[in-house]
Amino acid sequence: MSCGEPHETDCSEVLDHLYEYLDREMPDGDRSKFEQHFEECSPCLEKYGLEQAVKKLVKRCCGHDDVPTDLRSKVMGRIELIRAGQAVPEQPVVDPAASPAASPVQAQGDTGKSLS
Predict the structure, then answer these.
(1) Which InterPro entries match (predicted)?
(2) Where are the chain's structural domains?
(3) I need a labelling partner for 96 at 20 to 30 A (CA). Which of 81, 82, 107, 111 fits?
(4) Residue 98 three-state SS
């Protein structure tokens, strides 16, 4: 999304890092750039408001559930790998060593023919 107006910080950059802004996980200098962008760009401000409302709703409805420690560790480890450029975000979060791998027989299905 872009409003079509030139900004010091591009709309795509703001939207790509919106959750870092919402979660206060970015440096103050970057936060200031985003705040300036929101003052200038109503489409991004609207998207920010929508995402902020969704986060509040999720927190209110689900914020009391405890996250299992091992799940939190896996997710945080995955985030660090992605930030370091060592992993692709689209890959599954599940640790392959923790779950049994599908055997070739399982991948063939009922026909006995390979799916690959």
Answers:
(1) Anit_sigma_mycothiol_RsrA, Znf_put
(2) 11-64
(3) 111
(4) coil
